[in-house]
Write a structure and sequence with these properties.
This protein has 153 residues and is of the alpha+beta class. It contains 3 helices and 9 strands, in the order αββαβββββαββ. Strands 1, 2, 3, 4, 5, 6, 7, 8 and 9 form a 9-stranded antiparallel sheet that branches. The model has no long low-confidence stretch (mean pLDDT 88).
Length: 153
């Protein structure tokens, strides 16, 4: 899918939580002999202004984070601010986790050479940046549009 198709599907469900699935090759140690894929299924919202998120405003007010500035990389696509980011000839969609607790935790599946695998099986091969960070719930996801498998299924 391309970013415009993804956003079109999401805009048609404005104000709703929508299931989206994306996958990508995991970052692994050079010695790894397997293709490890991380597939994520999440309920998301889109089109939100990051600086208007309650969690971000609360953190700024509490002094635990700085004020929100522009994007750290890439540019908002003209006419699609808060939806699509263009960077180095790739397009990304900005998505936000569902606001309901029962939907807010993305489900992750691992594949090793195309076969389902457990986190325990793939963990020894993963770079530190890929490993579980249970305490960290991201305020948003920036997903490469090429990696999106489905929207709203």
């Amino acid at each position: 899918m391309n970013a415009s198709e993804i956003i079109s599907a999401l805009k048609g469900k404005a104000g709703q939580h929508v299931q989206i699935v994306w996958q990508r090759a995991a970052k692994v140690a050079k010695s790894c002999q397997f293709l490890i894929v991380k597939r994520t299924t999440a309920y998301v919202r889109s089109g939100i202004n990051y600086s208007n998120l309650q969690s971000i405003r609360d953190a700024i007010e509490a002094g635990t984070r700085e004020a929100v500035e522009g994007l750290p990389w890439g540019q908002w696509r003209e006419g699609f601010a808060n939806y699509i980011i263009d960077h180095k000839d790739k397009e990304y969609v900005r998505l936000y986790p569902a606001s309901f607790d029962n939907l807010s935790h993305p489900q992750v599946e691992w594949l090793m050479d195309g076969k389902p695998a457990t986190y325990t099986e793939v963990e020894p091969y993963l770079l530190a940046s890929e490993k579980h960070k249970d305490e960290d719930k991201p305020a948003c996801f920036t997903v490469n549009a090429e990696n999106v498998l489905s929207v709203g299924n």
